[in-house]
Amino acid sequence: MNFSHRLFFCLAAVTLGAQPAPDAGRATAERLRTEAFRTHGAHEDLTWLCDHIGHRLSGSSQLDKAIAWAQDRMKAAGLSNVHAEPAMVPHWVRGEESARMLSPLPQPLNILGLGGSVGTPEGGLTADVVVVDSFDDLDRLGAAVKGKIVLFDVPYQGYGRTVVYRHDGAARAAKHGAVAALVRSVGPVSLDTPHTGAMDYDPAFPKIPTASVTLEAATQMRRMQARGERISLHLEMGAKTLPDAPSANVVGEIRGTEKPEEVVILSGHLDSWDVGQGAQDDGAGTVMVMEAARLLRTLGLQPRRTLRVVLWTNEENGLRGGKAYRDAHRAELGNIVAAFETDSGSERIKSFSLELRKATPEAKQAALESLKGVGAALESFGPIEFRLGGSGADISPMVAEGVPGIGVGHAAAHYFDIHHSRADTLDKVDKDDLAHNAAALAAFAYALAQSNVRFQ
Length: 456
Fold this sequence. Notes:
Layout: H1 3-11, H2 22-39, H3 41-53, H4 61-76, E1 80-93, E2 97-103, E3 107-109, E4 111-113, E5 125-132, H5 135-141, E6 149-152, H6 159-175, E7 180-184, E8 210-213, H7 215-226, E9 232-237, E10 240-254, E11 259-269, H8 279-298, E12 305-312, H9 320-328, E13 336-342, E14 349-355, H10 361-375, E15 385-388, H11 396-400, E16 405-410, H12 415-418, H13 431-450
Parallel strand pairs: 5-6, 6-7, 7-8, 11-12, 11-13, 13-16, 14-15
Antiparallel strand pairs: 1-10, 2-3, 2-9, 4-8, 5-9, 10-12, 14-16
């Protein structure tokens, strides 16, 4: 019986038994919480990462430094089998970039090239701007945008709904002959600060340079167009893509005492975009999972199953780390009890979502009840919802193969205000939130590693 068939069969037989004693789990959680707030180790690590290494785009020397630093920190925490697992990653370089409105009002514009964009011709390009508010609006204009710069001024309606304009805008504009594309930053607020992020091209159409502009600039150009004014803009971008570069996931373990072959993964991604410090995305996730393991080691808590920390490379523009891990660990996927991923900032954890790709609806509900039983250990951490849903980008290659994924949902009230921008810096992070979250992750992962619960 192959892994996927065995997984489907086992999912139908999920039981609610063999869970850790709730009182013991709560007592352990309180010990972990006390230690986390005593030391604030997660904040100390994040401070070092932000102040001494900074942003960490795939292929950069900063990411290489972060990979070495993370291994040193895991070893210092007493984790075993600390090592780097290689992955080749994209190497996109931003270069110098600028934009200037020439008419109707000469003024500079703040831009950030989108990850993967090509650059402009030497000396830049100058063209009129056409503002659209949707792909349908663009398609209605059709050939009228030929030779022009298309600006997608799309109001933020949640990240999932709006990010498609960042990802696909250049390809859709190139289809109609545009020479460049601009995208209103995907976020709810702005202090004239643009947000970057990944984009992609359609091989059927030319690659055109594409960048984000601020909410202020996008809405201003919309007003100008509504008045019938001609908008002209000069754009210069030095972006280029170099050959793939070597990188690595960072791995460390607390080896299980009774069932070391069964693994619970705690993870976040170590790379970031090349602006700001990558504090929220995902430096916070990185230090929280490292701190969770350190707390367990400090208190001498040795789980029955192996608890493995994985810090992913290349989440932002390729998921090469997650794919490489899936391929390298394919033989043990059936023994991964669950893979946690935290990648939505540093604000307090409000939910855990269980993703099971190959289960029947009935089996998913049974597994959710098991998840809630293990989560009873977190009672003192305040209201936390346990639900079925998505898990995480880096673990998605494993989850697609049937590994249970657990997404960590943070409050994220202000996460997208600064997401992928120069404003993603340490000062936005509350050290008590980091301590709270690290302790919660440690308590939950430990309770699961102590139990016999399987979601498969």
